[in-house]
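Forwarding these from the shared drive since the link keeps breaking.
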Amino acid sequence: MRSGRGGKTVRGATARRPPNRDALSLRHGYWPRNTRASVCLTFDFDADSAYGDLPVTGLTVRSRGVYGAKVGIYRVLELLKRYDLPATFFVPGYTADKYPDATLAIVRAGHELAHHGYFHERPTQFLNDPGAERAVLEKGSAVLERFIGARPLGYRSPAWDLNPDSPKLLARAGFVYDSSLMDDERPYIMDHGDGDTLVELPIDWVLDDYTHFQFAPPMVQGLSAPSKVFEIWTDEFEGYFETGGCFILTMHPQMIGRHHRLKLLEKFIQFMMRRRRHLFLASCIEVARHTLQRLA
């Protein structure tokens, strides 16, 4: 049944949004099994592709990303297994090509594999060049298809840097959802006309480990104390829980995989699990399909 708030979003697309209880909160009963809110644990498995667009790509710089493929990814997978949690991994095609064992480990653990460019290309590189953007989408999808036996259904823009035409391009390429925009705390559907729709799963930098931990002077100082990040993430989680939002945590194996940060993630999981029976803990594609079912 079609319901919810309407409105405009990127490039004039019509947005279908969930029904509100009031100006800020979802109505109870929106999420499956009468849960109060949804949670998606997501990981951008960039490895060394994350540094491909930087002017300095020396061996030491790139090795920081390699740490995620050699060490961090396996620590993350072990932690998720211990708590029996689903997750979505956004993987550039280059990463899957270069680190097939790590990519297979994600798939064999039952997690969702989603698109993140081929070599971490920002869509804003392709302004007014949709053909080049389509080529990158096709190249990345073809690689991931070898691992999962089907085209990936989800997309996240590298550096969260969509260009205005990207959502319509993604919809026409067969993607079910995108997770790159920051204009809400609840999933919604973008209608582009001619039957082209795309679910948006909104994110924010405050729920990304990169901004808190990445050390890349002078742009990003990072190296925050985990206790500070724990306070921010738990307070945000409480807000999402109270208002019925979709709490999407974004992490990178090369950052969250360090010992002290992994302890932070486990501590946060333990905090969150106190409310497990009231949460829809799901992969991004599960949330996107639920959104389509509720708002179609």
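-- next protein --
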Amino acid sequence: MLGQRIYTVRKPTGNLDRFGVSTQIVLLRGINIGPRNRVPMARLREALEEAGFAEVRTHLQSGNVVLESQTKPEQTARKCERVIEDEFGLEIDVVVRTPAELGRVVKRNPLGKVARDPKRYQVSFLAGPLPVAAKRKLEEALQEPEELVFSGREIYAWHPNGVARSKLWAALAGRGLGVTATARNWTTVQKLLELASR
């Protein structure tokens, strides 16, 4: 499709047995935004392949990876963080979801009736439970006509006027939530589910 950048590394160099392998979606936090935290996707795919992951695919330049792993999602996240630190010298937080989990995120879609522009409809993926204090902080930052829904380890946010001046978006994108989080717009969420389902 025009404008999309999807790359695949098909053959792992490591010895990866098919038994116990699962597809996982790896979300890197805060890379390739401005001059800091630059991670070239081609080299990232190679580094992950060399670390033993298979079928490594990336989408866009914002740190979206679909791969096959023999480890559980939490272990995959820590392993990817180590690979990135070793290869690029960067400490980047990683959040991982399974295709089933991402499928439930898309199916739930609590703001689907109001979120008309998928680029302004964001889902924040959390590494763990959201602290109560952080939830209150986000609710206080919410300004009409924005909408916000908390659902397990995800936060759905609709920013009809964009994110540039949104206090809610600033709070979601910052490091004050008390838990690792990274956001993707609805278009990217749907594309990642499509890639993970192939």
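The first strand starts at residue 6 and ends at 9. The chain is about 30% helix and 25% strand.

- D.
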